[in-house]
Amino acid sequence: MAMNEHDRAPQPGDTSDDTSMALIHLHVRGTLKGDWVKKSRAAGQKLTDWIVERVAYAEAQTTHESSATPHAPEDQKQESNK
Length: 82
What we know:
Blueprint: H1 30-42, H2 47-63, H3 74-80
Helix pairs in contact: 1-2
């Protein structure tokens, strides 16, 4: 799933006009984080960007805001084919 400019994590030096950015701090099991790190690396993404992509996908699935059918992230496609 392709991310747009608003879906990615803010980076140092970003000059975005969006002043409504917020920090989200998560506490998860170490094993879960380890799984996420492996999957984000396999996808060639930073962990933050990988998580944001999945949150955006889940939001699109539950709110149906998009008129186009969103595509499942690659690891979800692979798991559904098992």
